Amino acid sequence: MPTTHATTHAKAGMIARLNHPDYDRWANQIKRTGGCRQPIHLRGKVDHYDPATGQLLHRYTTRAEPDGILRVPCKTRRASRCPACAETYRADTYHIIRTGLIGGKGVPETVTTHPTLFVTLTAPSFGAVHTRREHNGKVQPCHARRNATTCPHGRVMSCTARHGRDDVRLGEPLCPDCYDYTGSVLYNALAPLLWKRFADSVRRHLAKLGGLFLKELRCHLTLSFAKVAEYQRRGVVHFHAVIRLDGPGGPDAPPPAWATPDTLTRAIRHAANAVSAAAPAYDDQPERVLRWGDQLDIRPITLSGDLTEQAVAGYIAKYATKAAECVGTLDRRIQSLESLDAYDLRDHAQRLIVTCIRLGALPDLAELRLTDWAHMLGFRGHFSTRSRHYSTTLGDIRADREQHARDNEITTGRLPFFDDDTVLVISEWEYAGKGYSAGDQILAAALAGTPLPTAQDTVGSRQ
Length: 463
Prior knowledge:
Elements: H1 2-19, H2 23-32, E1 40-49, E2 56-61, E3 70-72, H3 83-102, E4 116-121, E5 133-135, E6 138-140, H4 181-209, H5 214-217, E7 222-231, E8 237-246, H6 261-274, E9 277-279, E10 288-290, E11 296-300, H7 309-319, H8 347-360, E12 384-386, H9 394-411, E13 424-434, H10 438-448, H11 455-459
Antiparallel strand pairs: 1-2, 1-3, 1-13, 4-8, 4-11, 5-6, 7-8, 7-12, 9-10
Helix pairs in contact: 1-10, 3-7, 4-6, 4-8
């Protein structure tokens, strides 16, 4: 049996690793990856030279490492691929959002006095879907209609079920044949453009409310923000954003007195209603204009109460590690339409993917790259973004972490101390693979205290 052979092979590999003389060094490598599920394998060396004499002061090479490679974390943000690395990404995002609300890491504490709002921009409706509604803590019927109509496909457009939180029908259309899959896919593709135009419109309206020309605004005010995209179960994205008003140049200066939370709210409402993005015409279909949905949530962020800076930072950071998996799609690119039959996909997700591939083959829609982003249901924007002046960056946080690790190596004597300003460092690295063998995977999971990935994890993730 193939399964028995695979199990025997994994056990043999595990025993061989445990009995190998360099097992302790291998285990130390695994621990230093932080429990990464698919570590990157690197082969190479790092040389430290005295630039005055050319003398080699120190050399690190992977030849002395187990299997001749160095294993480093994959650093993916996707929790479906690597929970350990995604947790690091989530924690870093949390600190980026929170420092922009209370200060720290180069952001002054006076930022807490700047007008700051938590904004949610939603997608429009593309057809009735199964949903979970609550009122006063009681779950309501999904789509209860006393005189429900029957759609052209013979389905009654009503649902009296009180769906649980994990009901697989959530997000599924009441009638898939009536659902506007084309509109859903095109909206996802244009969502990044909608956000850009929204931010530009907020700036223009702020200038108008302040009695300024747009080109004068930067001398009085800076619009800072951080946002994250979240997939709804129906397969469309909406954005959660922290939007803050600063003085000229960023958070070091306060905004002008006229730039109040009410002023920012008015500018956001105007922009959300004003902006649109047009999908190109194709075949016999005319140009299609898409806008934000009718639901717009704007709430102030406080240091105490229901919407604290911790709650907002935690909420945004959580969604920074997720993608379209909640819709039932894949977490990696799809190579061909035929490969869909090999995956356990929800019918709704499969229809969205097929629509992406169908539209992506049309020359008029080529610039949207729908085929490349079919696994994301058409969305090709960055999930977590921030404006330049909002707070610190992922790069700065990672540089601090690397410096801390280097200082620890020097303190413990595992790395000699060199003044980076007086030593020439030459690095040579090459990619040598990733992941684990079957036996190593079992040992790595035991060392990290994490469960083994399932077959479903290796194909795609569903919630």
